[in-house]
Write a structure and sequence with these properties.
Strand order of the largest sheet: 1-2-5
Largest sheet: 3 strands, antiparallel
Structural class: mainly alpha
Number of strands: 5
Order of helices and strands: HHHHHHHEEEEEH
Length: about 240
Amino acid sequence: MPLIPYDAFCEEDEYHLEMAKMHKLTPKLDVIHRLRDEMSLLQTDSEYATDVKGEQRDWLILHLSAQIFALALELTDDLAAVCTSYKDTLQANDTKVVERIAGFGVGEGHKFYREATSNAQFAGDALGVSASDTYAQEQARKSFEQIQKAREMWWRWYTGYKHGQYATPVALGRIDPAGNTIKKWGLYLVSKKPKRRAGQVHTGDRFIDTVAYVDHFIQLARTCVSLWSQTFNTQFPKVFKTP
């Protein structure tokens, strides 16, 4: 593969081609799997990382789960950017895929998923499905609908954790039926205006148990990467006129 030079001019056609080849979502999934492996070892192997003990170990597990959560939600926007950019590039009949990905703006992911979940033809076009294959188009719509539901449930926690300070890893307590106090580890969405009474505040139902549901986030990430792979394998040859 030709090497694109650093801080120098190069041929534009070669630049677009090679940059598009290098834009991949699979490495983020690889990172997620590594984080999950680390998390599992900390949870199940008492001989692993013996220097991290007690609550320090629980906090590390929590932060690993929060990073998995954030990467999974990030991949949903990555997928939308790729699908939109290849679709727009084919319509424009040029090769500026990566430039369009780079220009994918804040909030455009929401717009993409609203359209992809309500319009099977749009969803099929986004993945490069044949215009005559109505079954594949509807399957594409259902796949995007699955991602959209996850975004609707978790987006506030993602933006609060990834782009702000109002979703924070915490350990909260609850009382089980036997009267025992149990700690729940996850992301808490801090309220700017919590309910108050007589010097008290109410925590509210603003918590995601990222440790318990980490495998749900991993499945979301796998779905995104699978759809990215389908899009790339179908659309890249069309854009760059390769076999």
